């Protein structure tokens, strides 16, 4: 069991390079910015961020679990072979065939299924998640620009209330204009970044799900193709097959 835990931990470590570079740069909860368009887009991106992170984590755990399950299958087969020893040469030979086939499937899964999932699901999802830190930085900058703009407007209002034609009022008016232009520029950047993040997300999710189903189907088919012939040499497997059929609720498989 400890060996499986170690493999699980090792697998999680190997997947980190595909994930978000800085965990602290998650978008997180959004505070209203007094701009409904910005608020709406940022909230949608925040929701997408959480969904993509959940997908990334789920597929990563799935790949690790597949590796652990196959390693466990090899270990069990090896244990059966060791127990049998030379007591039943025919059964021993079948066990060795199973063991060899299982090891081949394990290697094939790592080369084909694992890499396909990494390239078609984990990597695109991780790359999309890595776009979030840039948006977080832009939002932080926009919040500062908004504070500056509000501060200058407040000072300008206070000064014009005293003397609208004063030199200080004219200077503050100029600062208000520059602060507004700066705010409008960073707001445009934020909206553009939100659009960029959302733009290809549906396509990424659709392609990822299609790839996941394809990998699952082919992996199961390859396992059946390799292992099913062994049943012909294992007549006692009939009882297990009957029990499986008896306990199967076919409506759950349609």
TrEMBL record:
Residues 10-20 have a biased composition (Basic residues). Residues 23-243 form the BAR domain. PROSITE patterns: BAR. It holds the Pfam family BAR. InterPro entries: AH/BAR_dom_sf, BAR_dom. GO terms for cellular component: cytoplasm. This is BAR domain-containing protein. It comes from the Eukaryota. Gene3D superfamilies: Arfaptin homology (AH) domain/BAR domain. It comes from Triparma laevis f. longispina. Residues 1-38 are annotated as: Disordered.
């Amino acid at each position: 069991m400890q060996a499986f835990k170690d493999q699980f931990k090792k697998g999680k470590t190997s997947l980190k390079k595909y994930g978000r570079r800085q965990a602290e740069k998650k978008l997180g909860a959004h505070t209203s910015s007094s701009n409904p368009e910005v608020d709406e887009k940022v909230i949608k991106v925040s929701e997408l961020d959480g969904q993509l992170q959940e997908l990334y984590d789920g597929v990563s755990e799935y790949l690790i679990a597949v590796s652990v399950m196959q390693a466990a299958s090899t270990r069990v087969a090896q244990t059966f072979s060791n127990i049998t020893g030379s007591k039943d040469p025919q059964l021993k030979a079948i066990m060795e065939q199973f063991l060899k086939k299982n090891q081949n499937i394990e290697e094939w899964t790592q080369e084909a299924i694992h890499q396909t999932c990494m390239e078609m699901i984990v990597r695109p999802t991780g790359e999309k998640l890595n776009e979030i830190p840039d948006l977080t930085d832009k939002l932080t900058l926009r919040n500062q620009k908004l504070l500056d703009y509000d501060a200058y407007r407040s000072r300008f209002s206070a000064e014009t209330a005293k003397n609208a034609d004063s030199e200080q009022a004219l200077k503050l008016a100029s600062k208000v204009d520059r602060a507004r232009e700066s705010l409008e520029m960073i707001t445009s950047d934020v909206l553009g970044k939100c659009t960029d993040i959302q733009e290809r997300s549906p396509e990424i999710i659709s392609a990822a799900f299609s790839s996941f189903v394809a990998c699952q189907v082919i992996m199961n088919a390859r396992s059946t193709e390799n292992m099913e012939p062994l049943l012909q040499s294992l007549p006692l497997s009939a009882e297990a097959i009957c029990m499986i059929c008896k306990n199967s609720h076919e409506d759950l498989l349609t």
